[in-house]
Amino acid sequence: MGCTSCASGADGQPKGCKNNGTCGTDGCNKLTVFDWLSNMSLPAKMTPYTGVEVRFKNGRKHFYQNNENLSLSIGDIVATQAESGHDIGIVTLTGELVRVQMKKKKENPDATKLPTLYRKATQKDIDIWQKVRDREADIQKRSRVIAIRLGLRMKISDVEFQGDASKVIFYYTAEERVDFRELIKEFARTFNSRIEMKQVGFRQEAARLGGIGSCGRELCCSTWLTDFRSVNTSAARYQQLSLNPQKLAGQCGKLKCCLNFELDTYIDTLATFPKRDVKLKTEKGNAICQKTDIFKGLLWFAYEKEAMNWHELTLERVNEIITVNKKGNTVANLEDYKIETKIDDTELFSNVVGQDSLTRFDKPKSSRRRKKKKRNSRGPVAAGSTKAKQSNARNKNRNNRNKPNNPKK
To answer: What does DSSP say about strands 117-120 and 51-55: parallel, antiparallel, or unpaired?
Structure first.
C-alpha cells in the first residue's frame, strides 16, 4: 500500500513522502478506503451527509458527526469527542461513503446519534499528541516488566495514548481470565494517568500490529479484511492441503484467513466429483480412489490388491463406470478407461553446465593432500640415504634465509 507521493522512483527506490501516515490520500494507512465519489457532485436539493470517519492508531476507526459543517478533507487532523476530554485522529473518509461504511459495519447510519467532531486540531493539540505518541514504546516496555513481576499470564501487545494525554489504553492478549486489579493500581501510580485495559483476540492483535505474510504481501487483516470468519481444518482438507500447522498457521498462531478465500470454489467443483469412499466394481476387483486433481478433472484409482499401481481416469470416464455399477453391472477393467499419455521425444532440457548432476557440489580432493598422503604412506626415511641428505640440505637453506643479517661491528 502507498500513495502516489511515496511510490517507487525512476531508479526503483522508494521515494518516501515522510508524512508519517498523514498523507492526503490516506494510502499509507491501514484499512484505507478509496473515495470514488469525491469527484462527483450531489444531486439537486440533497444535503451532504454530516458523518465523518476518523482513524486513530493502528487502524482503529470511529464515526463522528460534523455539527459545525467544517470543510474537511482526507488527511486532516481533528479533535473528536471522548469519554473525558478529547482525542486526536485523522480524517479518512467524508461524504456519502461514510453512510455505506456504517451500514457495512452494522452501525446506525443516523448522524445525529454519533459523537461530536469538535474542531480541526491546533498546533498545540498536535504537539501534545506527538509527544505522548513518542512515549508509547517506552511505556509498553515498562508495563510488560510490571506484568511479569506480578506474575500475570498476559501479553501487552500495544499501548495507545488519548490525544489530550489524559488516558492510556493497554491492549493485551491472554488465554485465560486475568485479574489485573493490582496491575491497574500500579500502572496509575507509575504513569500518572487514567488506565483502560482492553483484551483483544490473537487475530485482532495481528491486525493492529501488521506484518508480512508467507505470501510476501502485507497481512490481509491489517490492510483490507475487517470481518474475521472462523477457519476450520476442513477448509484445508477440501483444498487437499497437508495438515501442517507450521504452514497453515499465520502470524497470529491461528489458521490463515486466506484458506476461506477459495473454499467456495473448491466446494462447488467437488460437488461434481464422486465421493472418496465410492468403489469402482470391475471384473478384476474393486478399485479405490487414491488421488483427485480438481483443476484438471482427473482421478487416480487402484485395485485393492494392487495399491501401488495407479490408473489415471478422467471425471467423465469415472462417472460412466459409476452409472454402469448402479445398474448392477461391472466393467471389464480400468485399463480400458485409462488415459494414455504420450511422451514427446523432443528434448525439453539439455544439461549444459551440469545443473542436474547430483554430485555437482562435491569438490574433488586437491593434489597437495594426495602428495602428503603418499609421503606419509612410504614410511620413515633412513638416516644415511640420499633422500635424507637432500631434505637436510633444504632445511639448512630455509633456516639461513630466515636468520636476520648481523650488523658489522
So the answer is: unpaired
Q: Tally the residues of the chain.
A: 409
Q: What are 147's three cell numbers?
A: 506484568
Residue type, 86: H
**Contact in structure between 321 and 315 (CB atoms under 8 Å):** no
pLDDT beneath 70: ranges in the chain = 1-30, 340-409
What are the residues facing 168 on neighbouring strands? 161, 195
Residues of the chain with CATH 3.30.300: 130-205
CA distance between the termini of the chain: 82
Which CATH number does 130-205 carry? 3.30.300
| Euclidean distance between CA atoms 375 and 361, whole angstroms | 29
CB-based burial label for 1 (10 Å; 0-12, 13-18, 19+): middle
Q: What strands lie across the sheet with 280-282, from one edge to the other?
A: 280-282, 285-293, 298-303, 311-314
Q: What's this model's pTM, rounded to 2 decimal places?
A: 0.66
CB 90 within 8 A of CB 21: yes
d(CA 174, CA 201): 8
Q: Is the CB of residue 115 less than 8 Å from the CB of residue 62?
A: yes
User: What are the CA-CA distances from residue 349 to residues 86, 180, 361, 393 (Å)?
Assistant: 69, 66, 20, 59
Q: Which of 164, 166, 16, 24 lies closest to 90, judged by CA?
A: 24
User: Are the CB atoms for 172 and 200 separated by under 8 Å?
Assistant: yes
pLDDT digits (tens, 9 = 90+) for 1-13: 455 555 556 565 5
State the amino acid at position 37 in one-letter form. L
**Phi, psi for residue 159 in degrees, rounded to 5:** -130, 135
What is the C-alpha to C-alpha distance for residues 17 and 27, in angstroms, rounded to an integer?
A: 11
Q: What is the DSSP letter of 60?
A: -
Nearest to 31 by CA among 185, 227, 249: 227
For the chain, give the mean pLDDT.
82
